[in-house]
Amino acid sequence: SVGDALIDRYDGATRVIVPNTGIEAPIQRNDAATQRVARRDRYSFELKPHNPTHNSPGKKDLVYLEPSPGFCEKNTRLSILGTHGRTCNEASDRVDGCDLMCCGRGFRTQTMFVVERCN
C-alpha cells in the first residue's frame, strides 16, 4: 500500500548537507520547451549525505537537513509537551501503544472502577 511504501522511505531517509557553492537560481525563459527542461533540472547542485560512507540519495528518497527534536521529554522552548502523564493503549504496538509513547521508560498501569447511575 501507499502507506507502507511511505513508512519504508521515511525509515530510510538520509540526512544531507547542501553545498554552499554552485547554487544558481533557474533561468526563466518564455519558450515552453526550455521551461520543461528548467523545471526538470531546476537545481544545479547535488545533495551530499551527512555521513560520507552513505550513498547520495536518489530522486525518490526522502531527505532531511536536521534531525527532529526529541518528543519524549518536555521542551518549553520548542512547545513540546513530552509524553509524561499521557494515556496509552497497553495492547497496541502502534504509535498509541505504551512502549512507543513512553519512549521505552516503562509505564504505570492504573485500573479504575466507575459507578454511574442510569437515567
Automatic annotation (TrEMBL):
Sequence similarity: Belongs to the Wnt family.
Taxonomic path: Eukaryota, Metazoa, Ecdysozoa, Arthropoda, Hexapoda
This protein's UniProt keywords: Developmental protein, Disulfide bond, Extracellular matrix, Lipoprotein, Secreted, Wnt signaling pathway
GO cellular component: extracellular space
Main localization category: secreted
A single BP term in Gene Ontology: cell fate commitment
SMART domains: WNT1
UniProt xrefs under InterPro entries: Wnt (IPR005817), Wnt_C (IPR043158)
Role according to the record: Ligand for members of the frizzled family of seven transmembrane receptors.
Molecular function in Gene Ontology: cytokine activity; frizzled binding
Protein name: Protein Wnt
Localization (cell): Secreted, Extracellular space, Extracellular matrix
